Amino acid sequence: MNCWYVPFSKTITAELFQLIRNKAYLEYSELKSDVLMKEPETLIEPGLNVARPEVTAKIEELKRWMRSKRYSESTIGTYSDALKTFLRYAGEKPISEISNQDLIEFNNSYILANKLSASFQNQVVNAIKLFLRIVENKKMDVELIHRPKRAKVLPNVLSKEEVRLILNAHNNLKHKAMLSLIYSCGLRCGELLSLKPEHVDSKRNLLIIKQAKGRKDRIAPLSAKIIDMLRQYFIAAKPEVYLFEGQKKGEPYDVSSLQKVLKQSLEKVKINKPVTLHWLRHSYATHLLENGTDLRYIQEILGHSRSTTTEIYTHVSTKSIQNIVSPFDYLL
User: What's the pTM value of the predicted model, to 2 decimals?
Assistant: First the structure.
């Protein structure tokens, strides 16, 4: 599966839409809530030349450190861009002399004054804090910087009947199996596409998710019905490396193609909602709660580091993970 990183701006987004028009489906709903209506780079009068060798070297030093700590390339790129924005604003001031006051000034006179998003604000603060700690061995007191609390957005959830319609919309066994497995195990899209045949433990009725978000392995209970479906799929498709492979054997299924599969399902059953693949994961968690599953086990199954992340689904009961019944069993 190929992956490209591009700067996020209105201009580039428009060009990307034009480039893939009638060729692919672009799923961007997750960006809508935090989209920057203004482009940070264009709001700053060029000050510090971040292309200067000494500045570039320091930024590269941070990027190397982040890679050594297994940060994702997406996070590295985000921090690097946020850092460059701040350094341009800082002008010719030596990096070694940057203080809390500079960050406070940038926050008040640039981020807040230009009404940039809370997510961008947090990205910059976190990037500068990490940069100065790792590269300059200097600690910043971020408590002095006024930052908004992260907005609490309720997850989008489908009814059980809507999920049933979506999963049954496709006659194609592969397409049906992919969507069904996302819902039946509460998977993220990337987790599904990274699965390999050996990750399906049919003897213990478990799915092993390797090195998921946060570089953690976890397990999820497998429905007996989804195991039967996967057996049928495996016999028909004979995957070699990945459980779900693309047009070429040994290569993972493409994320945009999977998004298109979901879009086709929605069109067939006439569900007029901006449903994304992640909605299936949210729906799985919510339906587990409705079936009486203990919130602590849902946290473990979903791979949440903090219980507060799972508590957005609220509800607690006392079933053990071995006795959890997948809501997928009630659909077919």
Answer: 0.61
